[in-house]
Design goal:
Largest sheet: 3 strands, mixed
Structural class: alpha/beta
Radius of gyration: 18 Å
Distance between the termini: 28 Å
Shape: elongated
Order of helices and strands: HEHEEHHEHEEH
Strand content: 15-25%
Helix content: 40-55%
Oligomer: single chain
Strand order of the largest sheet: 1-2-3
Length: 143
């Protein structure tokens, strides 16, 4: 199973922000949309970074509430891991677990095609296991 399979079910919508926006503006978007991260993009749509709830909490914890007026670019995660549409779920799950990050932008031919979360990956894996379990029960019942 590939990343493309998850995006086909989930959709390709991505919540983004620009690097000059304030941390407070970004936090408001996260709260309004009920999501955990924004992809920071440049004028050409290129991925510049990721800003997560964790990034915001750590920034406020280290620098105080005044840091919410800083630009996103000052506190975003700039070294961004990405996935391709063809990448397997096992590979993505391992990288997200080992890297301790929850959101992974997906690129298709160098362009932002979507974003997957660890929740998306786990949900997909559980659905796969349930399907295998159901098939095994049916096989046993007909044997």
């Amino acid at each position: 199973m590939s990343v493309a399979f998850i995006l086909a079910a989930k959709g390709h919508d991505v919540a983004t922000t620009q690097p000059h926006r304030t941390m407070q503006e970004a936090a408001a978007v996260l709260a309004d949309k009920g999501i955990g991260a924004l992809i920071v993009t440049g004028g050409g749509g290129e991925v510049l970074g990721v800003l997560s709830e964790r990034d915001i909490v750590r920034t406020v914890g280290r620098h105080g509430a005044g840091a919410l007026q800083d630009p996103v670019s000052k506190h975003m995660t700039a070294k961004v891991a990405t996935a391709s549409m063809e990448e397997s779920m096992e590979s993505v799950m391992e990288r997200m677990t080992n890297g301790r990050f929850r959101h992974l932008p997906v690129l298709d031919n160098g362009r932002l095609a979507g974003v997957i979360s660890i929740g998306d990956v786990v949900k997909n894996r559980l659905e796969g296991l349930e399907s295998e379990h159901r098939a095994m029960r049916e096989y046993i019942a007909t044997a």
